[in-house]
């Protein structure tokens, strides 16, 4: 593969603590204490505009603003890179493939995070939505990334943990690899060309795609 597109949250990093604390804050401030006390893993991956609406929040834009203020103040760097990821990135870089971030997190935040944790040095470019919601859906984002990089979908691969990653790959005709250590579940990985349980398995899985 000439291009490897990597999801961030749940694939390269365990970002759940910071994201979840900021989501709880947004729910509490909008009067949804019962949601603030619930498991919010399902909200990591899809666009927050959709997820807050699905949760029954009357004003998703207000909830997103509350989330972002808290996230920037105290949640952004409350995260950790998964064990084995740096070794995985070193191995992938040695293959000569170009590495890219393709995340549902706005790139204004994602680039600060990848720089802070030492991930950005591996990436040719990093793609994420705009703060106004442009390209918030992963399929739109991946199509844009292919257009910007000039890579062909059949010589690229999308690596992620949620069905949004698998769906995005299918939409643009790109094979996908599901990682099982993130926030997804088995029923989300339908259509993936491979599933891997450890970062060390990614390079061989990509090589097997031809």
TrEMBL record:
Domain of life: Bacteria
Molecular function as annotated in GO: hydrolase activity; protein tyrosine kinase activity
GO cellular component: cytosol
Gene3D superfamilies: HAD superfamily/HAD-like, Putative phosphatase, domain 2
UniProt entry keywords in alphabetical sequence: Hydrolase
InterPro entries: HAD-like_hydrolase_sf, HAD-like_sf, HAD_2, HAD_sf, PGP-like_dom2
PANTHER family registered for this protein in UniProt: 5'-NUCLEOTIDASE (PTHR43434:SF20), PHOSPHOGLYCOLATE PHOSPHATASE (PTHR43434)
Name this polypeptide is given: HAD hydrolase-like protein
Lineage, top ranks: Bacteria, Pseudomonadati, Pseudomonadota, Alphaproteobacteria, Rhodobacterales
